[in-house]
Amino acid sequence: MERLDGGPRSAVVVGAGVVGLAAAWFLQERGVEVTVVDRTGFAAGASWGNAGWIAPGLAIPLNEPAVLRYGLRSLFDPAAPLHIPLTADPGLWSFLTRFAAHCRWSSWSRVAKANLPLNEESIEAYDVLTANGVEAPTVDAPFTAAFTSARQARTLLRELERLAAAGQPVEHVELSTADLRDQVPLASSALAAGVRIDGQRFVAPGEFVQALGRAVVARGATIRTSVVVGVRADNAGVVVRAKDDVISADAAVVATGAWLPGLAARAGVRTPVRAGRGYSFTVPVRKPVHGPIYLPEARVACTPYQGGLRVAGTMEFRDPDAPLDEARVDAIIASVRPLLDGVRWEDRTDVWVGSRPVTPDGRALIGATRIPGVYVAGGHGMWGLAQGPVTGRLLAEQITTGKQPAALREFDPLR
Predict the structure, then answer these.
(1) Side-chain half-sphere of 276: how many Cα atoms within 13 Å?
(2) What is the pLDDT of residues 253-291, one digit of tens each?
C-alpha cells in the first residue's frame, strides 16, 4: 500500500454498498485510514438483491427514445415493467421531465461514450479485489438473451451495433431456436430466437459485497452503524455528523445510492437522483441453468443463484423507503411464466425490493463537490454493481492525487 505525500491520511465513507466499500478498499490501497458509516450495514440496499451481473456488454444506456414512448404507456398499466405511479410528487415529475428531455439518440451516445472507461475496466477491477483478499468468486459464463421472434432479437442486435459505434464492441453470437434450447434448457416453446453475449461475469451480489466489507475491516477500517445527517468542511478537513456521533477526517465520500440527494444537494450537487426500484426473488428450477438469462421483452434478468434462479426485474419510480409491493412481484411472474418452463414459481423465496439510483441524464455522479474534501459516488442506475469497483478505484485516485482522472470528467457531480 502507498500513501501519496500531501494526500489525505483519513477518510469517512458514508454508505456500505458496493460503491462505498470499493472506494474504501481502494483508498486503503493508497494508504488512507478509513471509517465506514452506514445506517444498517454491509450490502443492505441495492447491492444485495440485484441480478449480480458484471456485464459491461449489456450496460446499455436507459435513455433511448423507445423508453420515453414505453414510459408514457406504462402510466396507465400498473403491471408494466417500467412503472411510474400516478402521484402528486412534484419532484418526481420534474425528474421525469428532465429524463424525457434526454431520451434522444444524441444523449444516448453521450452516455455510452462516457461509460466506456468504466465498462472497459469493470471486470479487471473485480479481479484486483478477488486477487487481494476479497474472498468471493466471480463466475465467467455466457449470457443468453432470449426472444419470442427473430424480429424482437433485432432490437438488442441494433443496440449492440450502437454500442460498437460508440467504441464498445461486444462479442456476441446469434442463436437459432435449436441453439437457444441447448443454451437455455428452461426456454419454453414461446421463445424462438436468442443472442449469446460472451465475456461477461456474474456474482452472488450480497455475498460479494459482504466479502468486500470483511476485507475492508481486515485492512483496519472502522465500521459504524448510524444515520449521517450532515457533512461540512472545517479548518482541519471535514466533519461528518451522524445522529449519535461526530467523525472528523481529511476527506469524506458520500455513496448512499438512492438516498444520495439528502447529503449531496447540500454540497452543491444539483443533478437529481431518484429511486428506480427493482424487485427480485429466488425460485427452484427443474432443469440446469448454465448462465444468466436475459428476457428483454419482459425486461427481466435471471441469474443462477444457490442452486435455483434469481429473477430480477421492473423499474418502479417510488420513494426508496416505500414498502415492497407484492403486485410488482406478481407482474414479473406473469410476464416470465410463459417464457420459461420447469420453474416452481409458487416456491419463491428471498422476495426483495431495492432502490437503484437513477439520474435524468443517464450519467453517474462521481467526484468532488463544492465542499472542499467532500466527494460523491452514485447514480449508476442499474449498473452500480458492475461499475462499483472501478468507480471506487478512480475516485480514490482523484481523492489522493487531487487530480480528476480523464475517465471521470463526464461524471462530474457539479455539471
Answers:
(1) 26
(2) 999 999 999 999 999 999 999 999 999 999 999 998 989
Q: Is residue 16 part of a domain?
A: yes
* Overall number of domains in the chain: 1
Residue 39 belongs to some domain of the structure: yes
Indicate the residue type of 32.
V
Task: Give yes or no for a contact between 62 and 381, defined as CB atoms under 8 angstroms apart.
Answer: yes
Quote the CA–CA distance of 160 and 156 in Å, as a whole number: 6
Instruction: Give the start-end residues of each E strand in 98-166.
Output: 139-140, 143-147
∠ CA(343), CA(348), CA(350), 5° rounding? 135
How distant, in Å, are the alpha carbons of 237, 255, 412 from that of 11?
A: 10, 13, 20
CATH of the domain at 394: 3.50.50.60
Query: Reduced to 3 states, what is the DSSP secondary structure of residue 228?
Result: strand
Q: Cα(248)–Cα(241) distance, rounded to whole angstroms?
A: 9
Within-domain flag for 40: yes
| Domain range enclosing 24 | 10-47+207-272+362-411
Side chain identity, residue 124: E
Residue type present at position 391: T
The pTM of the full predicted model, rounded to 2 decimals, is 0.94
The CA-based angle 90-110-63, given to 5 degrees, is 40
For the chain, first and last CA: distance in Å? 33
Whether residue 277 is contained in a domain is answered as no
Average of per-residue pLDDT values in the chain = 93
The three cell numbers of residue 312 are: 430480477
For 375, phi and psi rounded to 5 degrees? -125, 155
Tell me, what DSSP letter sits at residue 57? G
Residue 53: which of 385, 391, 415, 394 has the closest Cα?
Answer: 385
List pLDDT tens digits, range 60-117: 998 988 876 666 666 556 677 677 776 768 888 899 899 999 999 999 999 999 999 9
